[in-house]
Design goal:
Blueprint: H1 14-32, E1 46-51, H2 57-68, E2 72-76, H3 79-82, H4 91-98, E3 104-109, H5 114-121, E4 126-131, H6 137-151, E5 158-162, H7 169-180, E6 186-190, H8 199-207, E7 211-215, E8 227-230, H9 241-250, H10 258-262, E9 269-271, H11 292-316
Parallel strand pairs: 1-2, 1-3, 3-4, 5-6, 5-8, 6-7, 8-9
Helix pairs in contact: 1-11, 2-11, 4-5, 6-7, 6-11
Bound molecules: phosphoric acid mono(formamide)ester.
């Protein structure tokens, strides 16, 4: 039973993921068919969407998911500036209060561990919508769902994770999930040396006997990869003069352009959690292998499913 959604570890059970994939498929089909009906299973629920950091996809897709299931939504799109956090209220106190108004709380916060702190005091389910450079568990679930939809399998794949592996929370969550769920994954970890995947994630790969190689450039692994998962250099994590200088040096290090398509497998897929800044050029978008906008849309259906699962767990208590 899911009480909160805090970490990708909660999705390491393949059976649970298969249920999420099937249910997300059902939502997808119903939503896209003129005669399709979506049951308003959350009609008596209020979902609070509290974002202390900017978001387009996660916030809108959670809110759209809530509306499609019949819930009402309370939203704070800039809670860092317009909630009582500005006056010094702790995440714990804000959660205690919001939990008196809403039936579930979706939180994005710049500090790693903030969603966990909120869950420790919350009487309603908390969903971690990204906590600093920590995790983004619902993104990892939708990423794996996208792989399943695009390639028909999540097993025996060579997956290149490219870009800012140090700061990208979507990478951190996906590494955890890839370590536990698919059969026989092979990972290429492609980044500038300054943005390598942290040791603790390499430890997870090692503990789970996942084969991987660390590489400085992505072009050499493109011809081998079934999935190429690009990420942007996370500008907001480069704080201070020295770090900003480093950001400027690295931001154009990896660019996937139209020529990169020529060395990619014909049946491979290019993914990106978005936002894209300049690391994938726009002339790539029309190639059928560019899956990132489909990936973002899949987030809606996966999040509908996750909201429904949390609601069902609540009512079984
Ligand atoms: N992928 C993702 O988390 O996007 P947003 O920051 O726009 O929510």
């Amino acid at each position: 039973m899911l009480k909160h959604i805090l970490t990708t570890e909660q999705f390491s059970d393949r059976g649970r993921l298969n249920d999420i994939f099937s249910e997300s498929d059902r939502f997808h089909k119903a939503d896209q068919s003129p005669s399709g009906k979506i049951r308003k299973t959350l009609h008596d629920q209020i979902i609070a969407s509290v974002f202390y950091e900017p978001s387009t996809r996660t916030r809108f897709s959670f809110e759209a998911a809530a509306f499609k299931l019949g819930a009402n939504v309370l939203t704070s799109e800039n809670a860092g500036e317009f909630s009582s956090a500005v006056k010094g209220e702790s995440i714990e106190d804000s959660t205690r209060v919001i939990g008196g108004y809403a039936d579930m709380i979706v939180i994005r916060h710049p500090k790693m561990g903030a969603a966990k702190k909120a869950a420790e005091v919350s009487k309603v389910p908390i969903i971690n919508a990204g906590d600093g450079i920590g995790e983004h568990p619902t993104q990892a679930v939708l990423d794996l769902y996208t792989i399943q939809r695009e390639l028909g399998t999540i097993d025996d794949l060579k997956i290149a994770l490219v870009g800012d592996l140090l700061n990208g929370r979507t990478i951190h969550s996906l590494v955890r999930l890839l370590s536990k769920v698919p059969k026989n994954p092979y990972l290429y970890l492609a980044s500038p040396p300054q943005l390598r995947l942290p040791e603790k994630y390499l430890d997870i790969l090692n503990q789970n006997n996942i084969s991987y190689e660390i590489t400085r450039d992505f072009e050499t692994v493109l011809p081998e990869s079934d999935i190429v998962y690009f990420t942007r250099v996370q500008k907001e994590r480069f704080v201070g003069k020295k770090q900003r200088k480093l950001y400027k040096k690295l931001k154009n290090d990896f660019i996937f352009d139209h020529d990169s398509l020529d060395i990619m497998k014909p049946e491979a897929r290019l993914m990106h959690p978005l936002p894209r800044v300049n690391e994938i050029t726009e002339d790539v978008d029309t190639d059928p292998r560019a899956a990132y906008f489909r990936q973002a849309e899949n987030g809606l259906y996966v999040r509908m499913c996750l909201l429904e699962m949390l609601n069902e767990s609540k009512s079984k208590k």
